[in-house]
Amino acid sequence: MDFLSLAKQRCSVRKYKKDAVEKEKLDKLLEAARVAPTAANMQSHRLLVVSSNEGLQKLSKGVNYHGAPLAIIVCGDHSNVFVRPFDQKDMVSVDATIVADHIILAAEDLGLGSCWLTYFDPSEIRSQFNIPNNLEPVAIIALGYADMAKASPERHSRDRKEVKEFVYYETF
Fold first, then answer.
1. Residue 125 carries which DSSP code?
2. pLDDT by residue (tens digit) across 101-147?
3. Nearest-CA neighbor of 68 among 56, 80, 58, 85?
4. Which of 14, 36, 86, 113 is the most exposed place for a label (fewest CB within 10 A)?
5. Is the pTM of this model over 0.85?
6. Is domain 3-165 classified as CATH 3.40.109.10?
7. Whole-angstrom Cα distance, residue 118 to residue 42?
8. CA quadruple 30, 35, 38, 42: dihedral positive or negative?
């Protein structure tokens, strides 16, 4: 499948089958994260894989993960990140979101559903999983086999702005 078809096919899944994600597929998701580009190749991302019943129960205290059998907490490491010298902006959020995007697109390619979760209580997630202070939880990716009809890839024709509405050339 070409990239645009894959990207259009991917949608947020909010209902999952109980079936576990196979280790081989998890390994491919983690490899997709590994090869994701990061600012100055600092690789500031840290991933916490949660799939045990105990771990998922802890996860539920800080986020609605929609009953997925697997979640990946994507964190950025503020102690090991490229900082843009002009304004001192660190790239933790940028690096982590690129990694998360690689994971969700790889999941789609593997026949898995995913949901990018940002509506979570960071302090609760930090507490439940002993996340050190230098790490910032940026996103949580719910993963598994969809137990719902997926949205049509054609939805983008009606739900997304046209390119001419957000692209400018040479100047604003």
1. H
2. 999 999 999 999 999 999 999 999 999 999 999 999 999 999 999 99
3. 56
4. 86
5. yes
6. yes
7. 23
8. positive
